[in-house]
Structure formats: C-alpha cells, structure tokens
Amino acid sequence: MKRLEGKVAVVTGAAQGLGRTYAVALAEHGAKVVVTDVQDTTETVEAITSAGGQALGLNVDVTSDESLAEMVVSAESEFGPIEILINNAAIFAAIELKPFTHLSNDEWDLVMRVNARGPFQATKAVMPSMQKNGRGKIINISSGTFLRGAPMFVHYVSSKGAVIAQTRALSRELATDNICINTMVVGFTESEGVKDHAQLGGARAPTLAMRAISREMLPEDLVGTMMYLASEDSDFITGQSINIDGGALNQ
Which of 65, 143, 166, 211 has the fewest Cβ atoms surrounding its Cβ within 10 A? Predict the structure, then answer.
C-alpha cells in the first residue's frame, strides 16, 4: 500500500515549478490531488493522470475567501474531505530585486498578501474539512532567504519570515483538532522560477560554496521532507521549520 493511499491533498500554486513537483509526488504515493493555481493547471493534472494518478485542476486565488470556499466544495465533491494542504502559492519569479528605498508600498502589499496572507486564508478554508477527517497535515513553504537575510527583496524575505511565525502560532491552535502544521524552509533550488529569473544567476556560485553537500539543489531534493511531513510518520511533529539546503546554513 502506498504511503498516502486514498488521502486527499491540495497543493496551491501547482501549475508549474516546485508546486508541480509536490503535486506529482503526492499522487505517486497514492494521494488524490487537487491542483490549484491562478494559472492553467492542465499540464500538472495531465502529468498525474497519465501516470495513473487522480487529480482535479482548479483555478483558485488564495487571497479570495470565496475562491477558496469553492475549492473546498469541489474537492470534497470529487474526492472527499481534505487531509493534506501544501501552501506553496507565492510571488517569487516576478519580483525585481531592488533597494528597499525603491520598493513601493503597493509592491510590498501584493507580496505580503499572497505569500503571507494566502497560507493563512487557505488554512482557514480547509480546516473544517480536516475536522471531518479528525486529522490533517499542513505544510507551509518558506525560504532560506529569511535565515540569511538576503538583500534587495525585503518584501519577499519578510513574507517568508511571516510564514514561519504563522506556523508556530497556528500549531498551538490546530493541535486540538489533530492537525499538524510545519514549514519547509527551502534553499536555493534549480526550479523554473530560479532559472527564469534574470537577476538570480549570480547567487548560484556563492550558495554552492556555502553548502556542506556541494552540488546544485534540485526540486526532487524537497520531496522526501514533504512526504515525511504529509504522512503519518510525522504525527507527533508540529510547529517546526525544517531547513533543506544541503547544509548551507547549519542552524
């Protein structure tokens, strides 16, 4: 029997990149995956179904309570109550690195709304569904930029710090419903967002030099940790942040 056989999982921001990697991996381990994004999810859904998995693609805005409520209704109608939520949706690739003095309030608010408020809203939306199951696993996605204080995109770094704080605070409230919430703190990964970002190429060599495991980090390197946190193997772990970066920041 597969580790997540029959469980219903939602992945936000799963049309491409790391979100697609998470969604495909969950399906490979038996989960019925609700693939959500503001972009077209067809390719991710086809990647899952062509391999024999089950997936439902939905257009979902994580900053809209109405959109999230519709997602929960559709997920339960198609597959049943939700047990796993991967809060992956975020603004990253579109961010222009610039001094904070050149950053507008509107740019700050947009990134914080999607990256920090989005996981909060999605967690609120799925909680009643998880309560029906009597259990749940929520995995938030943060970034190693928060741990090292990366310059030139303070709004992104701040939003990812907020995700860690949110995880710790909500772990106290969600535990009474047997819901575990943890954070994956992701290092510099050779994802689509990184490869397509014109300003991030210069960070590759310094990051590689910092690592104890001296190689490029690939999307697949995140799957093992995600599976651990999504499965029953981590039933007594909540409120934690797991740093996945090949030992670049040994904290």
Answer: 65
